[in-house]
Amino acid sequence: MSHDDAAIHNGQLFGLDVGFSEAEVVVLPVPWDVTTSYRSGAASGPDAVIEASYQVDLYSEWVKDAGNLRLHTLDVPLQIKNKSSELRLQVEKYLEAITRGEQETKDFKTIVENVNLESGKLNQWVKKEVENIVSSGKIPFLLGGDHSVPFGAVEAMSEAVKEFSILHLDAHADLRKSYEGFEHSHASIMYNILSHAPSVKRIVQFGIRDYSSTEREMIASESRLKVFFDDDIQKRLFEGETWASIVDEIIEALPTENVYLSFDIDGLDPSLCPTTGTPVPGGISYSQLKYLLFRLGKSKKKIIGGDLVEVAPRFREDLQKDQWDGNVGARVLFMMLLASRMK
Question: Please, which residues have CB within 8 angstroms of residue 141's CB and are 6 or more apart in sequence?
Fold first, then answer.
């Protein structure tokens, strides 16, 4: 297919028709948002991004032969999506009750225990899928789903790679030991990685602008964390520093050659992701992220995998999906994929 033609809606990202065996990069969709604490919808993220991706022109001024990316997209697993929907209904009743200040009941305790059990099963499924991708010599990328879903992927990478760093874009620090009783909450992913993935030598976070006092204390005391707070980034820009100089610092803070990207779409300005689960004012612009990925791709770092999470589509009154969040997500994912093959 010529990249001047309209993309074929074939269930593959960007309409690229590359088999698993021929692919250099494999995307694993994970439609799961059981523990979302504010607004659900990220379980529809993979479908939304894939559908919107057909509108992306596969050309880049910065990457030669961008349209020749050898990319394979695994099928969206319906059993995972159905289980997420089933559990989400239970969780919403539980969350409504605790926000009203109701006392924990036996039924609520059962819901939390069941979610923790099923989240553990999901982690093992993701880990096995990523192990298969990596053992086949391909670069894994996850498409969520809420930010709990990459845990199994990072576990798999931690066993396959001696040492690596994580570059984490997010509005939130995600350093809670648990949240609302859920051990594998979207708000706990980086805490869990620090606790269970010893190959991760450092997590470098940027865009962070919404966090608790306990998380702030952990940031101050944990040597494996380096955080570029959004307030500090914006202050430096207002006072005359360049984004290029800040990007240099972010990349230099990554101590290892191998880098895994973990990007929560809410790290961006919320005008780019208005229906994400936990939007926060401020954040990184699309062009700033694009430039950072270009500089990272051209550096001596090696991108070994990644995830894009928390993309959630809006449904209009006519029940049709508004593709804006999916469109931005597709373009961000395309940039991430291109960065993994730049040199």
Answer: 25, 26, 27, 28, 305, 306, 307, 308, 333, 336, 337, 340
Residue 9: inside a domain: no
Number of domains in the chain: 1
Q: Residue 214 corresponds to which tokens in the numbers above?
A: 């306990």
Interatomic CA distance for residues 331 and 246, integer angstroms? 23
List the domain range (segments joined by +) for residue 65: 24-339
CA 263 to chain CA centroid, nearest Å = 4
Domain-embedded: residue 16: no
Q: What is the pLDDT of residues 248-294, one digit of tens each?
A: 999 999 999 999 999 999 999 999 999 998 999 999 999 999 999 99
User: Which DSSP helix (H) or strand (E) runs through 325?
Assistant: helix 324-339
What is the chain's percent helix, strand, coil content, to nearest 5? 45, 15, 40
Instruction: At 173, list the tokens.
Output: 């620090």
Rounded to two decimals, what is the model's pTM?
0.94
Residue 13 in domain: no
User: Is-contact 307 133, C-beta < 8 A?
Assistant: no
| Cβ proximity of 329 and 311 under 8 Å | yes
Strand-pairing partners, residue 166, are 203, 260
